[in-house]
Design goal:
about 30% helix; alpha/beta; 7-stranded mixed sheet
Length: about 200
């Protein structure tokens, strides 16, 4: 039986890698994170809209305050592809990376890109609040590193000379687009207010 004094926060995801990131990013704030995969369709026209959809669905399903996010990789030379559909251009990570490599073949390097993340906080009975973060980088031709998920093995942070997948968790949290969005959420005081 959960302790009635526990502050519980639903995280709108079924992705264990994303849940682990949130556990690290929100450590020390006194929240118990509850995964809540609502399976809501990402029908929004923007990352912000999709983050809202997920957070609001998780809040409605759980009755708890909930965080949802949407993020994507935008490659400059490909007009922002894969962008809003980053996770849906193919069913598996290897297929997504192969499609990206195929589209970049023949394009002049460096392949500049950015990761974008919007985080939404939905609290039942209150307006949903949103926060954004992004990180500039480059795409490398071959996956490098064992960590992370999604496009992490091909996204290079030039100032470190490493892909997200090469970084340890602590380093990734310093340079992550999700970290930057969550930091803005934390700095707003939204997670320390009575929810």
């Amino acid at each position: 039986m959960p302790d009635s004094s526990e502050r519980r926060l639903a995280i709108a995801t079924g992705n264990p890698g994303k849940l682990a990131e949130y556990e690290d990013l929100l450590a020390g704030l006194g929240w118990v994170l509850i995964p809540c995969d609502t399976g809501v369709a990402e029908t929004g026209a923007t990352y912000e809209a999709n983050a809202r959809l997920k957070a609001e669905a998780a809040a409605a399903a759980s009755g708890l305050p909930a965080l949802g996010d949407d993020s994507g990789l935008e490659v400059e030379g490909l007009g922002g592809f894969p962008g809003l559909h980053s996770a849906r251009v193919a069913p598996t990570q290897p297929e997504r990376l192969a499609i990206l490599a195929q589209r970049l073949a023949g394009q002049p390097r460096p392949w500049r890109a950015r990761f974008v993340c919007w985080v939404a906080l939905a609290v039942p009975g209150r307006p949903t609040r949103t926060f954004a973060g992004e990180v500039e980088g480059e795409i490398v031709p071959e996956p490098v590193g064992e960590g992370g998920f999604g496009y992490d093995p091909v996204f290079l942070v030039p100032e470190l000379g490493q892909t997200y997948a090469q970084m340890g968790r602590e380093a990734k949290h310093r340079f992550s687009h999700r970290t930057r969005a969550v930091r803005r959420l934390i700095d707003s005081g939204a997670l320390t207010e009575p929810l």
